[in-house]
Design brief:
Rossmann fold; Alpha-Beta Plaits; globular; binds adenosine-5'-diphosphate; binds magnesium ion
């Protein structure tokens, strides 16, 4: 596999604070690599260092086999960035904004026309070409921000939390747009603190905490890091302490948690956990409303590695 980015021992400190602590990793051609971590874990700082927008104390960064520096203009031409904060011109329309950003890379006007149309189509803004940013909802504005960052068809694209505070429709549109970009040959780095998104689109994930990689691999490799095999959630009222303690003794059970009428039982590998639990409820005359079983999530992995939740 061809390496598109190679990072070795990257360390970035702001005054006393170590924002990135000795990061080393590669990004391979054609993959969507997820950087997953809670707020403040160092995702944006990592991206900004890779892009040479921030200087750093230690480490080396190579992109397309060459050292990346603030004046690496040939490398920068092939890169697209969608920053965490939306940055568009209020006085330009949707079409004019994309034209402006694309024009920074592509001087030929005719060639640009097609690129702008492709970008508008990718993010689904066909109906809004003549709208000004102020007239767009938060989700549509994010989609414009994306179109501006990718219209020049870069080979390498960075997305920094592109779905924060967007409606579900825009979120789906953004995620499927990113998959299309990859299908068309781009290599993508995607940061988020939403583990669900990483599970949907990323081939490989690095989990960051306090500027360090605490785990990395494919989704299934990461899930093997937790001993949890299955999680059963039950809506149940007025469960007594002694009933909870009895459940802790059931076969394959790792842990039992009961809060606000929600019982969560985590199981290690074993068969028929759910039917056996339903049978147990029946035998002990315990009534419940809903019951469902899930596989462990990346949040469970994060919780086991760090002792805290990944969610907001
Ligand atoms: N300009 C700055 N000056 C000082 N500290 C900063 C600055 N930018 C970020 N930090 C700190 O560096 C850490 C990593 O921040 P950041 O990379 O923005 O995290 P993330 O993108 O994962 O939310 C945080 O503790 C943050 O407070
Ligand atoms: Mg950030």
């Amino acid at each position: 596999m061809k390496k598109i980015i190679e990072i070795e021992h990257l360390t970035k400190e702001y005054k006393e604070k170590k924002a990135i602590d000795d990061l080393s990793f590669n990004v391979y051609e054609g993959e969507i690599l997820g950087l997953l971590g809670p707020n403040g874990s160092g995702k944006s700082t990592t991206i900004n260092c890779i892009l040479s927008l921030l200087n750093f104390q230690k480490g080396s960064i190579q992109i397309f086999g060459q050292e990346m520096t603030p004046s690496s203009y040939e490398i920068k031409k092939e890169i697209g960035v969608v920053f965490q904060e939306v940055a568009v011109f209020e006085e330009l329309t949707v079409y004019e904004n994309i034209d402006y950003f694309c024009g920074l890379y592509i001087k030929n006007k005719e060639q640009r026309k097609q690129l702008i149309e492709d970008a508008i189509q990718l993010v689904g803004l066909e109906q809004y070409k003549k709208f000004y940013p102020k007239q767009l909802s938060g989700g549509l504005l994010r989609r414009l921000n994306i179109a501006c960052g990718i219209a020049h068809k870069p080979k390498l694209i960075f997305f920094d939390e592109p779905t924060v505070a967007v409606d579900p429709q825009s979120r789906n549109n953004i995620l499927s747009g990113i998959e299309t970009l990859r299908k068309n040959g781009a290599t993508i780095i995607y940061t988020t603190h939403y583990m669900e998104e990483v599970e949907i689109i990323c081939d490989r994930v690095m989990i960051l905490d306090h500027g360090k990689i605490i785990a990395s691999g494919t989704i299934s490799e990461l899930k093997k890091l937790t001993q949890i095999e299955e999680k059963v959630t039950v809506e149940i009222l007025g469960l007594l302490e002694k009933e909870i303690n009895k459940m802790k003794e059931l076969q394959n059970v790792i842990d039992v948690n009961y809060q606000n009428g929600l019982l969560i039982i985590t199981y290690k590998k074993g068969e028929n956990n759910l039917p056996k639990l339903m049978e147990y409820f029946k035998k002990n005359k315990i009534n419940y409303q809903k019951i469902y079983s899930e596989r462990p999530t990346l949040n469970d992995v994060f919780l086991e590695l760090t002792g805290k939740e990944l969610r907001d």
